[in-house]
Amino acid sequence: MRPVGSSRGWIARLHGRLFGDVEAVGARVAAVDERLSSTLASLGRVEGRLAHLKVCATEAEAAAEEARLRLGGLEARSAAGEARIEGTQAKNDRLGGRLLRLDAQVAGIADRLAAAGSRIQELEPRLAESESRHSALEARLTPLEARAQSHEGRLASLADTLLAGDERTGGMGARVASLEARTGGLDVPRANAVLKQLEARIAHLEQASLDLLREDAQLRERAERLSRIAAVTLLVEREPPRDVLVSVILPTRDRAELLATAVASVQAQRHQAWELLVMDDGSSDGTAEALARIDDPRIRRIRCEGVGTAAARNRGLDEARGAIVAYVDDDNVMTPLWLHAVAWALDRHPTQSLLYGAQAVQDDAGAEGGGPLDRRLWIRFEPWDRERLERGNFIDMGAVAHRRGLAEARFDERTTQLEDWDLLLRLTRDQAPLELPVVCGTYRSDAPGRVTRAFDPSPTLDLIRAKVEAARDR
Question: Would the pLDDT of 169 be above 50?
Fold first, then answer.
């Protein structure tokens, strides 16, 4: 057992050591607290940076999603671009083919224009000759008029002198003798006869001059029409085709040989969207067999059993499916551009329902000469004139086209001929047709078996004129 004094000393030392340890622990605790505070501060900064990183990560994810969307759009646009490139290449190929066809067409038009220019050059010397003849006639008329006036003056002077002499002398014999002496024995009856001959000659020359002027005007008008036809034809040939079905109505009976040419002219049309309705009005010459040999689904043969041209065309109007209706006879032919021009014109003029074009006419006036070179070929394209149409028809049905479904577009089945004239009179009663300066085809007047030679036109003429008078009275 330790003594009390030594115990106290040990306790004191222990106490000192304990307080020293406590202070050391406190210092260490303080250091730990300081490090903890620093750590907490660092943790706060870390948490802030972590939050910032989370925001950045969110923004990065949004940007990545946007990038993915943009990449998808770019891929879609790239695919569309590739498709457009392929379409452009195909279009370029088609355009190349069209350019080749257009080059060929332009070459053909150039040839036709050259031919028209040659024709105009041929007409110019005739015009110059007419002008020269007219000038010569005017030069001859001037002295004749002067001489006639001189004779008239002399006769008037003689008459005045005779009257004055009768009043002064009361005797004609002496005065006549005096006048004959003064005038060198002028024979008054003979002078009158000469004067009448001069007057007749002057009238003949005046009429000849008027005829020359009329012929000159006609030649100039024809040249102007030909130039207009050439210009519009060139314009139409450059136009793209219209997507519209055109129904062509062709009535026929026992003319199989001629029919083949008419059908071939429709098949040669540049405008491919057409249907041909062949109205076979009771043929027995092999027309059906000839049509059956033509492998073209656009051609339809419709049997009518001898109803007549007007009724056959009405049946064709009932069967037509196209938005536009055109016509061709079995002895005529269409030019390859006609249906293309018709579709173009009615598309450009939506308010017009009816048009007519130019037509090449092959006259048979020279057929007795022995061959086709003797026949005269000329272009018929007259300006629209309603009053002239009421006096007589000047537009062939083959030069006419109209929209399907017109109320007045029906042929009068009481007519045996001239049904086209009757139809035009009714279709143009309220609206003038559109003039289309493009040649529709060739009209032949020398084909056998023509309807115009088979029937007496008098009953039909009386019927149509009665209709015209009735329309005027409304």
Answer: no
106 φψ region: left (φ > 0), alpha (ψ -120 to 50), beta (else)? alpha
Q: Which long-range contacts (CB under 8 A, 24 or more apart) does 12-21 make?
A: none
Give the pTM. Answer: 0.57
The number of helix segments (H) and strand segments (E) in the chain equals 10, 9
Element (H, E) at 356: strand 354-362
In this structure, what are the phi and psi dihedrals at residue 424, rounded to the nearest 5 degrees?
Answer: -65, -40
Q: Which residues contact residue 454 at a Cβ distance below 8 angstroms, ignoring those fewer than 6 apart?
A: none
CB 407 within 8 A of CB 430: no
The matching CATH number, chosen from 3.90.550.10, 1.10.10.10, 2.102.10.10, 3.40.190.10, for 244-473 is 3.90.550.10
277 within 8 A of 305, measured Cβ to Cβ: no
Residue-range domain boundaries for the chain: 108-235, 244-473
* Residue linked to tokens 């015209």: 468
CA dist 328 → 91, 124, 276, 397 (Å):
35, 35, 10, 7
Of the CA atoms within 13 Å of residue 201, those in its CB half-sphere come to 15
Distance CA 56, CA 51 (A): 9
373-393 pLDDT tens trace:
445 788 999 999 999 999 999
| Confidence grade of residue 368 (pLDDT, cut at 50, 70, 90) | very low
The pLDDT score that the predictor gives to residue 375 is 56
Contact status, residue 279 vs residue 252, Cβ threshold 8 Å:
yes
138 contacts: CB under 8 Å, gap ≥ 6:
209
The whole-angstrom separation of Cα 414 and Cα 269 is 33
Q: Which residues pair with 301 in a beta bridge?
A: 278
3-state secondary structure of 383: coil
Distance separating alpha carbons of residues 207 and 173, to the nearest angstrom? 42
For the beta carbon of residue 327, count every other beta carbon within 10 angstroms.
23
Contact 363, 375 (CB under 8 A): yes
